[in-house]
Amino acid sequence: MTIEKILLGFSPKAENILPALKKVNAGFGYIDEEKAEKIAAYFSVPISQLYETATFYDLINTKKQPALTIKVCFSTHCALKDAKKIIVEIENVLHVKLGDENNPKFRLGKMSCVGRCGEGPVVMVNNKVYERVTVVMVRGMLEEYL
Fold first, then answer.
1. How far apart are CA 41 and CA 20, in angstroms?
2. pLDDT digits (tens, 9 = 90+) for 102-112
3. Dihedral of alpha carbons 54, 57, 60, 61, sign
4. What digits encode the pLDDT tens for the residues 63-101?
5. Residue 130 burial (C-beta neighbours within 10 Å; 0-12, 13-18, 19+)
6. Cis peptide before 46 (omega within 30 of 0)
7. Domains in the chain, ordered, with CATH?
8. Cys staple from 120: which of 14, 29, 48, 78, with CB 3.0 to 4.6 Å?
Protein backbone atom coordinates (compact mmCIF):
# COMPACT_ATOMS: atom_id res chain seq x y z
CA MET A 1 0.00 0.00 0.00
CA THR A 2 1.25 3.49 -0.80
CA ILE A 3 0.70 6.72 1.08
CA GLU A 4 -1.10 8.10 -1.95
CA LYS A 5 -3.56 5.20 -1.88
CA ILE A 6 -4.20 5.77 1.82
CA LEU A 7 -4.78 9.50 1.32
CA LEU A 8 -7.23 8.92 -1.52
CA GLY A 9 -9.46 7.20 1.03
CA PHE A 10 -10.04 10.58 2.68
CA SER A 11 -11.67 13.75 1.46
CA PRO A 12 -9.05 16.53 1.74
CA LYS A 13 -10.89 18.32 4.55
CA ALA A 14 -9.34 19.45 7.83
CA GLU A 15 -11.45 17.07 9.90
CA ASN A 16 -9.82 14.12 8.09
CA ILE A 17 -6.22 15.02 8.96
CA LEU A 18 -6.15 13.04 12.21
CA PRO A 19 -7.82 9.92 10.77
CA ALA A 20 -5.39 10.04 7.83
CA LEU A 21 -2.40 10.42 10.18
CA LYS A 22 -3.59 7.41 12.18
CA LYS A 23 -4.04 5.30 9.05
CA VAL A 24 -0.63 6.24 7.61
CA ASN A 25 0.98 5.57 11.00
CA ALA A 26 -0.73 2.16 11.20
CA GLY A 27 0.35 1.28 7.67
CA PHE A 28 3.99 2.35 7.91
CA GLY A 29 4.68 2.36 11.66
CA TYR A 30 5.65 6.03 11.68
CA ILE A 31 5.33 9.26 9.71
CA ASP A 32 8.69 10.52 8.47
CA GLU A 33 9.33 13.91 6.86
CA GLU A 34 8.60 12.65 3.33
CA LYS A 35 5.23 11.23 4.35
CA ALA A 36 4.42 14.33 6.38
CA GLU A 37 5.08 16.54 3.36
CA LYS A 38 2.76 14.44 1.20
CA ILE A 39 0.01 14.51 3.82
CA ALA A 40 0.37 18.28 4.33
CA ALA A 41 0.22 18.87 0.57
CA TYR A 42 -2.85 16.63 0.21
CA PHE A 43 -4.72 18.53 2.91
CA SER A 44 -3.30 21.91 1.83
CA VAL A 45 -1.95 22.73 5.29
CA PRO A 46 1.51 23.87 6.37
CA ILE A 47 3.78 21.03 7.46
CA SER A 48 4.12 22.74 10.85
CA GLN A 49 0.36 22.32 11.40
CA LEU A 50 0.58 18.67 10.43
CA TYR A 51 3.43 18.05 12.90
CA GLU A 52 1.54 19.96 15.58
CA THR A 53 -1.32 17.51 15.20
CA ALA A 54 0.87 14.41 14.86
CA THR A 55 3.06 15.15 17.87
CA PHE A 56 0.09 15.97 20.11
CA TYR A 57 -1.10 12.35 20.05
CA ASP A 58 0.97 9.64 21.76
CA LEU A 59 -0.15 6.96 19.32
CA ILE A 60 1.29 8.66 16.24
CA ASN A 61 5.01 8.15 15.72
CA THR A 62 7.18 10.65 13.88
CA LYS A 63 10.30 8.49 14.17
CA LYS A 64 10.99 4.90 13.20
CA GLN A 65 10.29 2.69 16.16
CA PRO A 66 12.48 -0.15 17.47
CA ALA A 67 11.23 -3.73 17.40
CA LEU A 68 9.71 -3.39 20.89
CA THR A 69 7.94 -0.21 21.95
CA ILE A 70 6.39 -0.05 25.40
CA LYS A 71 4.21 2.82 26.60
CA VAL A 72 2.90 3.08 30.13
CA CYS A 73 -0.15 5.22 30.79
CA PHE A 74 0.79 7.93 33.24
CA SER A 75 -2.55 9.68 33.61
CA THR A 76 -3.58 10.52 37.15
CA HIS A 77 -5.50 7.28 37.66
CA CYS A 78 -2.73 5.01 36.36
CA ALA A 79 -0.04 6.99 38.19
CA LEU A 80 -1.93 6.45 41.44
CA LYS A 81 -2.18 2.73 40.64
CA ASP A 82 1.61 2.19 40.65
CA ALA A 83 2.49 3.09 37.05
CA LYS A 84 5.87 4.36 38.29
CA LYS A 85 6.66 0.98 39.89
CA ILE A 86 5.70 -0.73 36.62
CA ILE A 87 8.08 1.55 34.70
CA VAL A 88 10.91 0.74 37.12
CA GLU A 89 10.27 -3.00 36.71
CA ILE A 90 10.27 -2.71 32.90
CA GLU A 91 13.56 -0.78 33.11
CA ASN A 92 15.04 -3.57 35.26
CA VAL A 93 13.81 -6.41 33.04
CA LEU A 94 14.89 -4.85 29.72
CA HIS A 95 17.90 -2.84 30.96
CA VAL A 96 16.48 0.25 29.29
CA LYS A 97 15.71 3.71 30.66
CA LEU A 98 12.47 5.61 30.29
CA GLY A 99 12.71 8.02 27.37
CA ASP A 100 15.93 6.59 25.91
CA GLU A 101 15.53 6.97 22.15
CA ASN A 102 18.99 5.60 21.32
CA ASN A 103 18.34 1.98 22.20
CA PRO A 104 17.97 0.09 18.90
CA LYS A 105 15.93 -2.76 20.43
CA PHE A 106 13.58 -1.19 22.98
CA ARG A 107 11.79 2.07 23.62
CA LEU A 108 10.05 2.76 26.91
CA GLY A 109 7.87 5.82 27.27
CA LYS A 110 4.94 7.31 29.09
CA MET A 111 1.65 8.07 27.39
CA SER A 112 -1.30 10.18 28.38
CA CYS A 113 -4.72 8.77 29.13
CA VAL A 114 -6.02 6.13 26.74
CA GLY A 115 -9.54 6.23 28.17
CA ARG A 116 -9.36 2.98 30.11
CA CYS A 117 -9.11 4.42 33.59
CA GLY A 118 -11.24 1.68 35.10
CA GLU A 119 -8.79 -0.92 33.82
CA GLY A 120 -5.57 0.85 34.83
CA PRO A 121 -2.73 0.77 35.01
CA VAL A 122 -2.54 0.32 31.26
CA VAL A 123 0.57 -0.70 29.30
CA MET A 124 0.84 -0.88 25.52
CA VAL A 125 3.43 -3.20 24.00
CA ASN A 126 3.66 -2.71 20.23
CA ASN A 127 0.07 -1.41 20.29
CA LYS A 128 -1.26 -4.43 22.20
CA VAL A 129 -3.05 -3.17 25.30
CA TYR A 130 -2.57 -4.78 28.71
CA GLU A 131 -4.93 -3.76 31.50
CA ARG A 132 -4.70 -3.87 35.28
CA VAL A 133 -0.97 -4.45 35.00
CA THR A 134 0.94 -5.18 38.20
CA VAL A 135 4.67 -5.28 38.88
CA VAL A 136 4.41 -9.07 39.22
CA MET A 137 2.91 -9.34 35.70
CA VAL A 138 5.63 -7.34 33.92
CA ARG A 139 8.23 -10.08 33.36
CA GLY A 140 5.67 -12.56 31.98
CA MET A 141 4.08 -9.91 29.80
CA LEU A 142 7.45 -9.01 28.24
CA GLU A 143 8.70 -12.60 27.80
CA GLU A 144 6.15 -12.98 25.01
CA TYR A 145 8.18 -10.45 22.99
CA LEU A 146 11.75 -11.46 23.88
1. 13
2. 888 899 999 98
3. positive
4. 887 889 999 999 998 888 999 999 999 999 999 999 888
5. middle
6. no
7. 3-56 (no CATH), 68-143 (3.40.30.10)
8. 78
